[in-house]
């Protein structure tokens, strides 16, 4: 179903806009943009791993930060490379659960970590959309009311004392992702001021959390709509989304190294050879 929705979204965009915006998005990415995205990914991945460690410890499971960073990079790569956008998270939870002999708790730690991150991201998005004009400014107050209920429920279901650190880590993650999108937009030729681009970037980040195929599909559709509604042009929106997608893929490649290294090391464990 996810593959069908993502494919239909991309096919619709090609039908309406042609292949030009997709090609322009690929051409827009240069070495500087890739280096910036990779550097920002170090920050965001480290903060995600820190957030995961906080949640795991709140659930009574220890998780070394270095192990968490490596596992999170691997998770990001799998999420980008495989359909669904959550395969890497499931793998991360299962692996951590097996390492700690408690698969259920490992999966819960990952699930709560992702939920906590999404709650903070939604809060920040709504706050910005309330303060700055955007294509969805009229409906944001209604969303804000429902968000208060959601946040209250999540905080009651988790340990409140862990939330300050979780909120800080999540805010840094959102800032890093938004900065990456803004770099992609500048690379695609967008010259709109930050006050106009920030709400658009946060809207796109929310769309990126929808069911997708390696990140593709809803992200491009929402970016095209948001840019068109803001008067920047749907084609420019698609080019920006494509550039962002390429930057995210390249930034996740350390996860592929972690994955290959783990696979090469696994036979040694199976044969009873001690870890180096």
How would you characterize the overall build of this protein?
By secondary structure, the protein is mostly helical. It has one domain. The chain has twelve helices and no strands. Helix 8 packs across helix 9, helix 9 runs antiparallel to helix 10 and helix 10 crosses helix 11. The longest helix has 29 residues. It is globular. The C terminus is likely disordered.
> Which percent band covers the strand fraction?
under 5%
List the uncertain runs. 268-276
Estimated structural class: mainly alpha
Number of domains: 1
Shape: globular
Descriptive key words:
276 residues, mainly alpha, 12 helices, 79% helix, globular, disordered C terminus
In short:
By secondary structure, the protein is an all-alpha fold.
Topology record:
Layout: H1 2-17, H2 20-28, H3 31-58, H4 65-81, H5 87-99, H6 103-131, H7 140-157, H8 163-187, H9 194-208, H10 218-229, H11 234-251, H12 253-270
Helix pairs in contact: 1-10, 2-11, 3-4, 3-6, 3-8, 3-11, 4-5, 4-12, 5-6, 6-7, 6-8, 6-9, 8-9, 8-11, 9-10, 10-11
């Amino acid at each position: 179903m996810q593959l069908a929705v993502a494919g239909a979204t991309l096919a619709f965009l090609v039908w309406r806009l042609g292949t030009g915006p997709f090609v322009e998005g690929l051409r827009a990415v240069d070495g500087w943009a890739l280096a910036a995205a990779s550097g920002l990914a170090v920050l965001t991945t480290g903060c995600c791993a820190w957030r995961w460690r906080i949640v795991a410890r709140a659930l009574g499971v220890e998780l070394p930060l270095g192990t968490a960073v490596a596992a999170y990079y691997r998770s990001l790569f799998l999420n980008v490379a495989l359909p669904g956008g959550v395969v890497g998270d499931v793998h991360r939870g299962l692996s951590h659960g097996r390492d700690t002999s408690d698969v259920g708790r490992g999966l819960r730690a990952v699930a709560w970590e992702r939920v906590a991150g999404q709650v903070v991201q939604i809060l920040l998005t709504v706050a910005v959309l309330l303060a700055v004009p955007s294509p969805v400014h009229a409906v944001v107050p209604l969303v804000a009311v429902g968000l208060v209920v959601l946040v209250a429920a999540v905080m009651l279901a988790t340990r409140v004392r862990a939330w300050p650190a979780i909120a800080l880590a999540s805010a840094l993650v959102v800032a890093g992702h938004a900065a990456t999108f803004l770099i992609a937009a500048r690379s695609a030729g967008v010259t709109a001021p930050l006050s106009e681009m920030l709400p658009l970037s946060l809207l796109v980040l929310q769309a990126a959390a929808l069911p997708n195929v390696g990140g593709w599909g809803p992200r491009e559709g929402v970016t095209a709509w948001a840019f068109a509604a803001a008067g920047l042009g749907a084609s420019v929106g698609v080019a920006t989304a494509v550039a962002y997608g390429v930057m995210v893929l390249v930034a996740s490649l350390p996860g592929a190294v972690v994955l290959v290294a783990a696979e090469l090391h696994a036979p040694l464990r199976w044969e009873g050879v001690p870890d180096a």
